[in-house]
């Protein structure tokens, strides 16, 4: 789905805060800022709240009245999803959604999104480097054992 199409779908479903702005909670992230997220969602002018959640209880506390959630590592369990009062979308940094109860989200009509091409270059480069290193290590081992 193109970026613009996702924004339109979200904009159609998002409710607003008392000041007229949707509330987007970033439960956690590894990168130093959320400027890219702010730029991507600028069309709906949300209020961003950056948290540092690790546990289910922390997520519940900060997201209870969120319109949207962006998450990376903390568990977005059935209990979290059932506590959400008006959430319409949960987006995960990463290729999977293994920390999100997608079934519960679907039951509550919450869109779950991820980033399918997240870190593809980094992962493939790392894998090739490990293969190269293991080959070098095996060769050195062979030299020590047989020479």
Determine the structural class based on helices, strands and strand pairing.
alpha/beta
Number of helices: 6
What is the radius of gyration computed over CA atoms, rounded to a whole number of angstroms?
A: 20 Å
The SSE order reads HEHEHEHEHEH
Strand content bin: 5-15%
Order the strands across the largest sheet as they lie in space: 2-1-3-4-5
Shape: elongated
| Helix percentage | 40-55%
Spans of at least 5 consecutive residues whose pLDDT stays below 50 are 1-17
* Overall tally of domains: 2
Average pLDDT, all residues? 84
Question: Could you please describe the fold and organization of this structure?
Answer:
By secondary structure, the protein is of the alpha/beta class. It has two domains: 3-116, NAD(P)-binding Rossmann-like Domain (Rossmann fold, 3-Layer(aba) Sandwich), CATH 3.40.50; 119-147. It has helices spanning 3-13, 35-40, 56-63, 78-83, 102-107, 120-146; strands at residues 23-26, 47-50, 68-71, 89-92, 111-113. β3 (68-71), α4 (78-83) and β4 (89-92) form a beta-alpha-beta unit.
């Amino acid at each position: 789905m193109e970026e613009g199409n996702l924004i339109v779908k979200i904009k159609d479903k998002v409710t607003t805060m008392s000041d007229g702005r949707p509330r987007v909670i970033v439960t956690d992230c590894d990168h130093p800022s959320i400027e890219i997220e702010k730029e991507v969602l600028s069309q709906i002018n949300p209020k961003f709240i950056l948290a540092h959640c690790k546990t289910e209880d922390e997520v519940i506390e900060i997201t209870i009245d969120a319109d949207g959630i962006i998450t990376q590592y903390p568990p977005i369990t059935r209990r979290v999803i059932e506590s959400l009062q008006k959430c319409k979308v949960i987006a995960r940094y990463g290729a999977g959604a293994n920390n999100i109860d997608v079934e519960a989200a679907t039951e509550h009509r919450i869109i779950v999104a991820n980033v399918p091409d997240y870190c593809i270059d980094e992962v493939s480069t790392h894998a090739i480097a490990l293969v190269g290193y293991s080959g070098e290590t095996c060769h050195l081992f062979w030299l020590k054992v047989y020479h």
